[in-house]
Every structure is written in structure tokens, then in C-alpha cells.
């Protein structure tokens, strides 16, 4: 996680809903299990905590043997990481990639249900000198998995920070930065499509909220709000996260593919469906950050996020802009797209930089920072705002939070 990102713009506006998209089925919520903290419970105890809370996916930032052995025979899906430090060797040496996969994936699979390998973490931000080596490393690791018959079960991707986009306002103008769009992102999306994988994004909506004066905090926290209009697409958003997700989808569509160099819109399909975006990190702080980080705000954000991912019904509210809505699933541009997310993160970690220490769902003593229900999604504290509507024709609209 890197909180010093170049903050990107988001949307402002409103419109009256006339048509609502059909619902998707819902995604899955996991957690990031970082270990940069003192007095953390041992991995075997952590696994019991995961099971107790019905957490079915976990992302780790390495391939620690003790952690991987502890997760064996649990049914918990595990995403492991080939680190930024290991990336240059994987990019240039197929034998290194083969041995890495043998030692860190095959050695534990299938008892430990490893289903993903992330190549580096936020390379564009944290190790930009490796940009040109990122896709070659992804391809060599995927080739190593294929040699062992694991390419269908274990997908290769890389976590990308949101500031890889140069434009995110409005979402329909979403575009990747010029220094990576053609050289890295275009071949990467080709690779993800060809292998049936997914794009992993690390997105922290509260950062965009902090950088946008006048934005309603309800728009950030999935609560009823006036909505925000994209005047190009004529879509109205009621969720900052959906605006950011759609900016990513539009940015991918603008990339030329290997079979579409003459221009036009990329057909984002993999295995007959939409190329998926998974969130490798997302959460809200419980302290600091100019007063936005509070336990109440973090709980509201987590509740709304989990209900959205799970496909929870929005319920009935008095807000006239959403009274006809029945689902908070999908986004305006991708109404049928499910969303898997990894909440950053399992524990508060006191050895991280100060502005990254208060994102945990649990304290190191395993007591919850606030209550979260991973079975049903959220805490049942109230309805979540539907995420979007689409306007027919050119009806009324205004700018403002």
C-alpha cells in the first residue's frame, strides 16, 4: 500500500433515474494478511481467526512457508506474491521462474489452495525502473505454471495503484498514464485476456475524497446522496468506488490490443465474459487523515462495500433518486460485473508508516476494531445506497457534492 499517490479527480453531478440495470450475482470478500507488526498471533492462530470469521480469501505479500503450511486443508483461497526484488530475475530467466513456481506454488498446492500469483506490488509507483520487465516476468511465471499443469487453477496478475491512471474524471474519460499505456498496459491486458486472468487494482476511495473539496462524504461511504453525473456517458453515480472502477474499465478499453492496432474500442472479454477487475487492496482508515479516519466512517465504508460485493439489496429509502433501485451490484459501465475485493487489512500493523497503521479489521490481540459479518456482508446496520442509474435522453442535471 502506498498512500502518497498522485490523487485523481472524481465526479460531481445529479440526475433523475429512469432505467436500472439488472443485477449481477455478487463477488467475494477477502483480506490482506500483512505481518509488519509486533505481537501478532502466530500463523496457525491467524488461520483459526480467518475460519472463525468465515473469511474465504486471503492475500499475502510473500510466500512464507509457515503461513502457507498453516493455510493447508482449510479451503481458504490464497494469493501469493513474487516480490519486486524477485521480479528482475523472473523477467530474464525462465529457469528462475520455473524454480520459483516449483518451490512456492507447486510445493504447497493443492493442500494450500493457491489460486493467484501477483507479480510485484504497485511496480509503477514503488519500482518504476522495473516497468519494462513487468510483463515479461508475468509471462515467464505463467509459462512455469503451465508446464506444471497449474495454469488453469492459478492465475497471474499484478497489483496496480490507482494513480496509474492519468485521468479519472469523468469516468468515461479514464485513461492510463502516457509512460505506461502503450508500453506496459496494452501488452499486459492482452496477456490477461489470453490467459483468462484479471486486472488487480489497489483503490482507496477516501484519498480521492480528500483531494476533492466539497464532495459529500455520503458519496464516499455508500450512503444516500444526490448522485454524480458523467455528462459524456449520461450515467449518474451514487458511489465513488463505482466511479473509480469505471474509470479503470474505460481506460482499458482505450488501449489498443495486438489485434486492434488501428484504433477503436478494445473488446474486453476473457473466456466469453468481461475482463474482470479485482481489488487487491481497499479500505478506510479508523484514525487520522484530516478527521476522515474514524471508526464510524470505516464501519460505514466496510458495510457498504461488503453489501455491494455480496449483491445485497439496497432496501427502501426516502431518497427520491434511488427509490426504484433494487441492487447495488455492478457499475454503470459494467452493470453485470461481479467484484472480488481484498480488504486492507487483517490487523493494525504498527511497523508500517504512521498513515498506514490504522486500517486493520482486528487488533493484534484478535479483538475486532469494529464488527464485520463476512457471511452476510456488513453488519445489518441499514440499507446501502444503489451505486448508479442511467438517464434516458438529456434530462436535468447539476454540479455539486
UniProtKB/TrEMBL annotation:
Signal sequence coordinates: 1-26
InterPro entries to which the protein is assigned, alphabetical: GH (IPR017853), Glyco_hydro_17 (IPR000490), Glyco_hydro_17_plant (IPR044965)
Database matches in SUPFAM superfamilies: (Trans)glycosidases
UniProt KW keywords: Glycosidase, Hydrolase, Signal
GO MF term list: hydrolase activity, hydrolyzing O-glycosyl compounds
A Pfam entry, by short name: Glyco_hydro_17
Gene Ontology CC: plasma membrane
Name the UniProt record assigns to this protein: Glucan endo-1,3-beta-D-glucosidase
Amino acid at each position: 500500500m502506498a498512500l502518497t499517490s498522485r490523487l485523481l479527480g472524481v465526479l460531481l453531478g445529479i440526475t433523475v433515474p429512469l432505467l436500472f440495470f439488472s443485477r449481477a450475482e455478487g463477488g467475494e470478500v477477502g483480506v490482506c494478511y500483512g505481518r509488519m507488526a509486533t505481537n501478532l498471533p502466530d500463523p496457525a492462530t491467524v488461520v483459526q481467526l480467518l475460519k472463525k470469521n468465515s473469511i474465504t480469501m486471503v492475500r499475502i505479500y510473500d510466500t512464507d512457508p509457515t503461513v502457507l503450511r498453516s493455510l493447508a486443508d482449510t479451503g481458504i483461497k490464497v494469493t501469493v506474491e513474487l516480490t519486486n526484488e524477485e521480479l528482475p530475475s523472473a523477467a530474464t530467466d525462465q529457469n528462475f521462474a520455473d524454480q520459483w513456481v516449483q518451490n512456492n506454488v507447486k510445493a504447497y498446492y493443492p493442500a494450500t489452495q493457491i489460486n493467484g500469483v501477483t507479480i510485484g506490488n504497485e511496480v509503477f509507483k514503488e519500482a518504476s525502473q522495473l516497468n519494462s520487465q513487468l510483463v515479461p516476468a508475468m509471462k515467464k511465471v505463467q509459462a512455469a505454471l503451465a508446464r506444471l499443469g497449474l495454469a488453469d487453477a492459478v492465475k497471474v496478475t499484478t497489483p496496480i495503484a490507482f494513480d496509474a491512471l492519468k485521468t479519472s474524471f469523468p469516468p468515461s474519460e479514464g485513461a492510463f498514464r502516457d509512460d505506461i499505456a502503450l508500453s506496459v498496459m496494452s501488452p499486459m491486458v492482452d496477456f490477461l485476456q489470453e490467459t483468462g486472468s484479471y486486472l488487480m487494482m489497489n483503490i482507496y476511495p477516501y484519498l480521492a475524497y480528500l483531494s476533492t473539496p466539497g464532495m459529500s462524504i455520503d458519496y464516499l461511504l455508500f450512503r444516500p446522496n444526490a448522485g454524480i453525473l458523467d455528462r459524456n456517458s449520461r450515467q449518474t453515480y451514487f458511489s465513488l468506488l463505482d466511479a473509480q472502477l469505471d474509470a479503470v474499465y474505460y481506460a482499458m478499453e482505450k488501449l489498443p490490443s495486438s489485434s486492434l492496432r488501428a484504433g477503436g474500442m478494445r473488446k474486453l472479454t476473457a473466456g466469453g465474459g468481461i475482463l474482470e477487475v479485482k481489488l487487491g487492496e481497499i479500505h478506510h482508515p479508523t484514525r487520522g487523515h484530516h478527521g476522515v479516519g474514524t471508526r464510524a466512517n470505516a464501519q460505514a465504508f466496510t458495510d457498504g462495500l461488503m453489501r455491494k460485493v455480496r449483491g445485497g439489496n439496497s432496501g427502501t429509502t426516502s431518497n427520491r433518486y434511488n427509490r426504484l433501485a433494487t441492487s447495488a451490484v455492478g457499475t454503470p459501465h459494467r452493470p453485470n460485473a461481479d467484484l472480488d475485493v481484498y480488504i486492507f487489512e487483517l490487523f493494525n500493523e504498527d511497523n508500517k508508516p504512521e498513515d498506514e497503521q490504522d486500517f486493520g479489521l482486528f487488533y493484534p490481540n484478535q479483538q475486532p476494531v469494529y464488527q464485520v459479518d463476512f457471511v452476510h456482508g456488513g453488519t445489518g446496520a441499514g440499507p446501502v445506497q444503489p451505486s448508479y442509474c442511467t438517464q434516458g435522453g438529456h434530462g436535468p442535471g447539476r454540479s455539486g457534492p
